[in-house]
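To close the section, here is one more complete example, presented without commentary so you can practise reading it yourself. The ligand is N-(iminomethyl)-L-glutamic acid.
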Amino acid sequence: MSDLAVIRDGGVLIRDGKIDIVGASKEIEKNARDTEVIDAGGRVVLPGFVDAHTHLVFAGNRLDDFERRALGETYEKIAAAGGGIWSTVEKTRASSDVDLLAQANKHANWFLKSGTTMVEAKSGYGLTVEDELKILRVMRRLNQETRLEVVPTFLGAHSIPQEDRQSPQQYVDLVIKEMLPRVAAEKLAEFCDVFCERGYFDIEQSRQILTEAKKLGLKLRIHVDQLSNSGGAKLAAELKATTADHLEKTDQGGIAALKSADVQPVLLPGSVYALGSTSYPRAREMIDAGLALVIATDFNPGSSPTVSMPMILSLACTQMKMSPAEAITASTVNAAYSLDRGDKIGSLEPGKRANLSILDCEDYRELAYWFGFSQVHSVYVRGKCVHKNAETL
Ligand code: NIG
Ligand code: FE
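Output:
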């Protein structure tokens, strides 16, 4: 993870949206005839970020929760009082697909502007059959209509809806018997996720849902051990999930379980930061155990309102003691593998998609070092410029 294979005075030859040659600029210029030349001017060129954990489609915001947390209330207390995920569910249910798509479009542009060219996106703010399908269909349209590439995940088990709070099993059955078959039949998601946590879905309920999802051909990514250590990392290992996400409270035993089943950890330091917590996950131990660690934004209106992967790099280095190179690997090629696209994106190699950004710095470490503003100069998806920074006048 710490070897980025940097090429000084390098260049990339792009043909039909794919990378044809990567190497010294001089060599590339020899091979390039009748080619449009883009001079990066000595700046850093990196693969587009791959954000492997987002909740991209939702209505409204959570400004009231944010203000209450600023005044000292906790995420869990606010949720118990009717705020939290539930308040976003109410707004999302009341939104038309047209309005949801418009808001998602705005967020998609934020991602592209920040140098992210592919995201995983979870449903989970609908919690009825039709509302979950509505969200997944918005993702499909977003993928077709914008330059941001979207990999959909079904997260019907994000929270027990208010109407089923008295009998949670009824909702688990709805997810298993009605939602999952529809999602699979319409091929609306590649992955299935569950928020496995005290007060949300316990280990047994999570196991039931995920086992059924697997039978239907969905791959698994699971929210585990975020607020408490409930043995979620071990469940991810038992079910051979592709990823186990969050892991703030995972201990050594959980890390060993992930390693034994080759589950990729997806760490989300943005949500630790935005919740005002200091319990960052044990990134160093995970890397030292040989796990192919991923870092992601967890973009959502409640616990992590950011699309900025550079901000996540900053947190990874300052709070989780990762090196800048490790943070870049974790947000590009490792993330691509976690989405089953390691052969197509995530690094600048011949044959891969020409998804890349030019950054206004000369050393890649600057990206994690300067924080709180954008250093993105321009962004390319499949060889086409999708964002160029305006000059200050
Ligand atoms: O990943 N943990 C559960 N889901 C989100 C939070 C969603 C929300 O608060 O709206 C997360 O942190
Ligand atoms: Fe999340």
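Once you have examined the tokens, check your reading against these statements. DSSP finds 16 helices and 14 strands in the chain. The mean pLDDT is 97.
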